[in-house]
Automatic annotation (TrEMBL):
It comes from Paramagnetospirillum magneticum (strain ATCC 700264 / AMB-1). Gene3D superfamilies: Spore Coat Polysaccharide Biosynthesis Protein SpsA, Chain A. Residues 7-129 form the MobA-like NTP transferase domain. SUPFAM superfamilies: Nucleotide-diphospho-sugar transferases (SSF53448). The lineage of its organism: Bacteria, Pseudomonadati, Pseudomonadota, Alphaproteobacteria, Rhodospirillales. GO terms for molecular function: nucleotidyltransferase activity; translation initiation factor activity. Keywords: Initiation factor, Magnesium, Nucleotidyltransferase, Protein biosynthesis, Transferase. It comes from the Bacteria. This is Nucleoside-diphosphate-sugar pyrophosphorylase involved in lipopolysaccharide biosynthesis/translation initiation factor 2B, gamma/epsilon subunits.
Length: 233
Protein backbone atom coordinates (compact mmCIF):
# COMPACT_ATOMS: atom_id res chain seq x y z
CA UNK A 1 0.00 0.00 0.00
CA UNK A 2 1.38 3.40 -0.99
CA UNK A 3 0.91 6.29 1.44
CA UNK A 4 -1.48 8.97 0.18
CA UNK A 5 -1.13 12.23 2.09
CA UNK A 6 -3.07 14.82 0.05
CA UNK A 7 -6.61 15.18 -1.24
CA UNK A 8 -8.71 17.54 -3.32
CA UNK A 9 -12.47 17.95 -3.02
CA UNK A 10 -14.15 19.35 -6.14
CA UNK A 11 -16.67 22.02 -5.16
CA UNK A 12 -16.65 24.52 -8.04
CA UNK A 13 -19.65 23.33 -10.05
CA UNK A 14 -22.70 25.46 -10.82
CA UNK A 15 -25.29 22.84 -9.81
CA UNK A 16 -27.64 23.96 -12.59
CA UNK A 17 -29.97 20.96 -12.25
CA UNK A 18 -30.44 21.73 -8.54
CA UNK A 19 -31.96 25.14 -9.18
CA UNK A 20 -33.69 27.03 -7.65
CA UNK A 21 -31.85 25.80 -4.52
CA UNK A 22 -28.45 26.57 -6.03
CA UNK A 23 -29.34 30.13 -6.94
CA UNK A 24 -28.47 31.05 -3.37
CA UNK A 25 -26.66 27.95 -2.04
CA UNK A 26 -23.75 26.30 -3.85
CA UNK A 27 -24.55 22.64 -4.48
CA UNK A 28 -21.78 21.32 -2.18
CA UNK A 29 -23.46 23.20 0.70
CA UNK A 30 -26.89 21.70 0.09
CA UNK A 31 -27.82 19.86 3.26
CA UNK A 32 -28.88 16.21 2.92
CA UNK A 33 -30.20 14.48 6.03
CA UNK A 34 -28.69 17.17 8.25
CA UNK A 35 -25.19 17.43 6.73
CA UNK A 36 -23.90 19.23 3.68
CA UNK A 37 -22.53 17.20 0.80
CA UNK A 38 -19.20 19.01 1.11
CA UNK A 39 -18.90 18.13 4.79
CA UNK A 40 -19.74 14.52 4.04
CA UNK A 41 -16.92 14.38 1.48
CA UNK A 42 -14.48 16.06 3.85
CA UNK A 43 -15.48 13.67 6.64
CA UNK A 44 -14.37 10.73 4.47
CA UNK A 45 -11.09 12.42 3.59
CA UNK A 46 -10.28 13.33 7.18
CA UNK A 47 -11.15 9.83 8.43
CA UNK A 48 -8.57 8.55 5.95
CA UNK A 49 -5.96 10.55 7.88
CA UNK A 50 -5.49 13.26 5.28
CA UNK A 51 -4.48 16.65 6.65
CA UNK A 52 -3.46 18.41 3.43
CA UNK A 53 -6.75 19.16 1.69
CA UNK A 54 -7.59 21.44 -1.22
CA UNK A 55 -11.13 22.58 -2.08
CA UNK A 56 -11.77 24.42 -5.34
CA UNK A 57 -14.42 27.13 -5.60
CA UNK A 58 -16.25 29.13 -8.24
CA UNK A 59 -20.00 29.65 -7.82
CA UNK A 60 -20.84 31.51 -4.60
CA UNK A 61 -17.23 30.97 -3.55
CA UNK A 62 -17.38 33.26 -0.51
CA UNK A 63 -20.15 31.11 0.93
CA UNK A 64 -18.00 27.99 0.62
CA UNK A 65 -14.96 29.70 2.12
CA UNK A 66 -17.00 30.98 5.07
CA UNK A 67 -18.44 27.50 5.65
CA UNK A 68 -14.99 25.90 5.61
CA UNK A 69 -13.60 28.34 8.15
CA UNK A 70 -14.80 26.03 10.91
CA UNK A 71 -13.01 22.95 9.60
CA UNK A 72 -9.37 23.79 10.24
CA UNK A 73 -6.75 24.57 7.63
CA UNK A 74 -7.98 23.87 4.11
CA UNK A 75 -6.35 25.32 0.99
CA UNK A 76 -8.78 27.12 -1.32
CA UNK A 77 -8.15 26.97 -5.07
CA UNK A 78 -10.47 29.60 -6.50
CA UNK A 79 -11.41 29.49 -10.18
CA UNK A 80 -12.61 32.85 -11.53
CA UNK A 81 -13.46 30.93 -14.70
CA UNK A 82 -14.64 27.34 -14.44
CA UNK A 83 -11.85 24.92 -15.39
CA UNK A 84 -13.85 21.64 -15.32
CA UNK A 85 -12.49 18.64 -13.46
CA UNK A 86 -9.15 18.29 -15.22
CA UNK A 87 -8.31 21.97 -15.32
CA UNK A 88 -9.39 22.41 -11.72
CA UNK A 89 -7.09 19.65 -10.46
CA UNK A 90 -4.23 20.84 -12.68
CA UNK A 91 -4.50 24.34 -11.20
CA UNK A 92 -4.30 22.90 -7.67
CA UNK A 93 -1.36 20.54 -8.34
CA UNK A 94 1.19 22.72 -6.50
CA UNK A 95 -0.81 22.06 -3.30
CA UNK A 96 -1.19 18.30 -3.83
CA UNK A 97 2.24 16.99 -2.89
CA UNK A 98 4.56 15.34 -5.36
CA UNK A 99 3.15 11.85 -5.85
CA UNK A 100 -0.35 10.46 -5.27
CA UNK A 101 -3.53 12.12 -4.03
CA UNK A 102 -7.26 11.55 -3.69
CA UNK A 103 -9.78 13.54 -5.71
CA UNK A 104 -13.38 13.46 -4.45
CA UNK A 105 -16.50 15.04 -5.95
CA UNK A 106 -18.64 16.96 -3.46
CA UNK A 107 -21.87 16.51 -5.44
CA UNK A 108 -22.26 12.81 -4.61
CA UNK A 109 -22.72 10.95 -1.33
CA UNK A 110 -21.39 7.55 -0.42
CA UNK A 111 -21.36 5.33 2.62
CA UNK A 112 -18.60 2.83 3.29
CA UNK A 113 -18.71 -0.93 3.35
CA UNK A 114 -16.80 -2.95 5.99
CA UNK A 115 -13.57 -1.15 5.01
CA UNK A 116 -13.71 2.58 4.13
CA UNK A 117 -13.62 3.19 0.37
CA UNK A 118 -10.60 5.49 0.59
CA UNK A 119 -8.67 2.87 2.56
CA UNK A 120 -9.57 0.23 -0.04
CA UNK A 121 -8.30 2.52 -2.80
CA UNK A 122 -5.06 3.13 -0.90
CA UNK A 123 -4.53 -0.61 -0.43
CA UNK A 124 -4.95 -1.28 -4.13
CA UNK A 125 -3.03 1.78 -5.32
CA UNK A 126 0.33 0.94 -6.94
CA UNK A 127 2.04 4.08 -8.28
CA UNK A 128 4.56 1.96 -10.14
CA UNK A 129 1.91 0.69 -12.55
CA UNK A 130 -1.04 3.08 -12.07
CA UNK A 131 -1.62 6.71 -12.99
CA UNK A 132 -5.32 6.68 -12.04
CA UNK A 133 -7.47 4.38 -9.91
CA UNK A 134 -11.21 5.01 -10.11
CA UNK A 135 -13.78 3.90 -7.57
CA UNK A 136 -16.57 2.41 -9.67
CA UNK A 137 -20.18 1.99 -8.60
CA UNK A 138 -22.53 -0.68 -9.90
CA UNK A 139 -25.28 0.97 -11.93
CA UNK A 140 -27.71 -1.46 -10.35
CA UNK A 141 -28.07 -0.05 -6.86
CA UNK A 142 -26.90 3.51 -7.64
CA UNK A 143 -29.58 5.67 -6.05
CA UNK A 144 -30.67 8.64 -8.15
CA UNK A 145 -28.59 7.67 -11.19
CA UNK A 146 -30.38 7.64 -14.54
CA UNK A 147 -27.51 7.10 -16.98
CA UNK A 148 -26.41 4.06 -18.97
CA UNK A 149 -23.14 3.40 -17.15
CA UNK A 150 -19.59 4.40 -18.02
CA UNK A 151 -17.36 1.34 -17.88
CA UNK A 152 -16.94 -2.39 -18.16
CA UNK A 153 -14.30 -3.88 -15.84
CA UNK A 154 -12.18 -6.85 -16.86
CA UNK A 155 -10.62 -9.54 -14.65
CA UNK A 156 -7.41 -7.50 -14.36
CA UNK A 157 -9.32 -4.53 -12.84
CA UNK A 158 -8.90 -2.52 -16.05
CA UNK A 159 -11.93 -0.35 -16.97
CA UNK A 160 -13.10 -0.15 -20.58
CA UNK A 161 -15.41 2.58 -21.88
CA UNK A 162 -19.01 1.75 -22.73
CA UNK A 163 -18.41 2.99 -26.25
CA UNK A 164 -21.22 1.96 -28.60
CA UNK A 165 -22.68 -0.57 -26.17
CA UNK A 166 -26.25 0.28 -25.05
CA UNK A 167 -25.22 0.12 -21.40
CA UNK A 168 -22.36 -0.74 -19.06
CA UNK A 169 -22.51 -2.18 -15.54
CA UNK A 170 -20.38 0.43 -13.77
CA UNK A 171 -20.36 4.20 -13.41
CA UNK A 172 -17.56 6.41 -12.14
CA UNK A 173 -18.42 7.20 -8.53
CA UNK A 174 -16.62 10.54 -8.30
CA UNK A 175 -13.90 9.13 -6.01
CA UNK A 176 -10.37 8.35 -7.21
CA UNK A 177 -6.62 8.30 -6.67
CA UNK A 178 -4.43 10.12 -9.19
CA UNK A 179 -0.68 10.53 -9.66
CA UNK A 180 1.00 13.83 -10.53
CA UNK A 181 2.51 12.19 -13.60
CA UNK A 182 -0.99 11.86 -15.11
CA UNK A 183 -0.92 15.63 -15.72
CA UNK A 184 2.35 15.73 -17.66
CA UNK A 185 1.55 17.32 -21.01
CA UNK A 186 -2.07 17.96 -19.99
CA UNK A 187 -4.08 20.62 -21.86
CA UNK A 188 -3.97 24.21 -20.67
CA UNK A 189 -6.99 25.80 -19.02
CA UNK A 190 -10.41 24.15 -19.06
CA UNK A 191 -10.60 20.39 -19.71
CA UNK A 192 -12.17 17.21 -18.36
CA UNK A 193 -10.33 14.51 -16.45
CA UNK A 194 -11.80 12.12 -19.03
CA UNK A 195 -9.07 13.29 -21.41
CA UNK A 196 -6.44 12.01 -18.99
CA UNK A 197 -8.32 8.80 -18.18
CA UNK A 198 -8.35 7.90 -21.86
CA UNK A 199 -4.64 8.61 -22.17
CA UNK A 200 -3.90 6.50 -19.08
CA UNK A 201 -6.07 3.70 -20.50
CA UNK A 202 -4.04 3.67 -23.72
CA UNK A 203 -0.90 3.29 -21.62
CA UNK A 204 -2.59 0.54 -19.54
CA UNK A 205 -2.23 2.68 -16.41
CA UNK A 206 -5.95 3.19 -15.66
CA UNK A 207 -7.53 0.83 -13.11
CA UNK A 208 -10.82 0.45 -11.29
CA UNK A 209 -12.11 -0.78 -7.93
CA UNK A 210 -15.79 -1.56 -7.32
CA UNK A 211 -17.39 0.21 -4.35
CA UNK A 212 -18.92 -2.11 -1.75
CA UNK A 213 -21.06 0.43 0.10
CA UNK A 214 -24.01 2.62 -0.88
CA UNK A 215 -23.87 5.50 -3.36
CA UNK A 216 -26.31 8.37 -3.93
CA UNK A 217 -26.62 10.97 -6.65
CA UNK A 218 -28.56 14.07 -5.63
CA UNK A 219 -29.10 15.60 -9.06
CA UNK A 220 -32.34 17.54 -8.65
CA UNK A 221 -34.42 19.05 -5.83
CA UNK A 222 -36.95 16.27 -6.43
CA UNK A 223 -34.30 13.65 -5.59
CA UNK A 224 -33.57 15.09 -2.15
CA UNK A 225 -36.43 13.56 -0.13
CA UNK A 226 -35.67 9.98 -1.21
CA UNK A 227 -31.95 10.26 -0.50
CA UNK A 228 -32.66 11.90 2.86
CA UNK A 229 -35.02 9.06 3.75
CA UNK A 230 -32.37 6.46 2.90
CA UNK A 231 -29.63 8.27 4.82
CA UNK A 232 -31.64 9.00 7.93
CA UNK A 233 -31.01 6.70 10.93
Amino acid sequence: MSAITHAMVLAAGLGLRMRPITLTTPKPLVSVAGRTMLDRALDHVERAGIDDIVVNTHWLADTVVEHLAGRGEITISHEPDLLETGGGVAKALPHLGHSSFYVVNSDIIWTDGPVPALARLARMWDPNRMDALLLLQKVEGAVGYEGKGDFFLDAADVPHRRGEAPSAPYLFSGVQVLHHRLFEGAPEGKFSLNVLYDRAAQARRLFGLVHDGNWYHVGTPEALPEVERLLSP
